[in-house]
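Postdoc handover notes: sequence design on the structure in folder B. Input tokens:
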């Protein structure tokens, strides 16, 4: 368990299996990359907020859970008000546990790591500058195209932009339907 109070990351941080990055104070600035569950282990890794704060900067937080085992790479708001800053990205395969806290996304949320699934539960607000970014590389949800899965009845406020891109040379047919 490592406390990242007020830290600025300009490099690569790897949070291995069975480890927690604790964010306190007013949050942290991430201009690099944070890889949660860097070795894709079975016990998982997590970033946990223990006070209200912002995940700011120009970098990304990548949840690295193998497809089908989303509970091993987590972002936990832990009953706190958390903001994903305007230039920051949360992406990957895993879980965002907002629960009794709140998550306001002013940056980018991008499910999958070409392609994949990101699950979340709790109240999510997508602000005016928010971007939801999805990749489509086939017709199978979660493995060929990205999927953002809400797992509870928590409130959600939708604003911002939806960005969809094709990957792996995929060309959709007129009859293809994608539930993102």
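Designed sequence:
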């Amino acid at each position: 368990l490592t406390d990242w109070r007020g830290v600025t990351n300009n490099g690569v941080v790897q949070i291995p299996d069975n480890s927690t990055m604790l964010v306190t104070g007013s949050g942290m600035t991430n201009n690099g990359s944070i890889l949660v569950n860097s070795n894709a282990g079975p016990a998982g890794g997590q970033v946990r907020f223990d006070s209200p704060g912002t995940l700011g900067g120009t970098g990304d937080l990548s949840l690295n859970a193998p497809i089908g085992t989303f509970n091993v790479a987590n972002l936990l708001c832990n009953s706190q008000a958390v903001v994903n800053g305007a230039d920051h990205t949360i992406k990957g395969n895993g879980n965002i546990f907002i629960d009794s806290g709140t998550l306001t996304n002013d940056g980018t949320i991008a499910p999958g790591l070409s392609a994949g699934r990101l699950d979340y539960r709790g109240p999510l607000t997508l602000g005016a500058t928010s971007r939801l970014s999805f990749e489509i590389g086939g017709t199978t949800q979660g493995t060929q195209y990205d999927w953002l899965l809400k797992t509870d009845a928590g409130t959600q406020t939708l604003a911002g932009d939806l960005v969809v891109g094709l990957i792996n040379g995929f060309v959709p047919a007129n009859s293809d339907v994608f539930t993102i």
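Context for whoever picks this up: The chain has no helices and 20 strands. Don't rerun without checking with the PI first.
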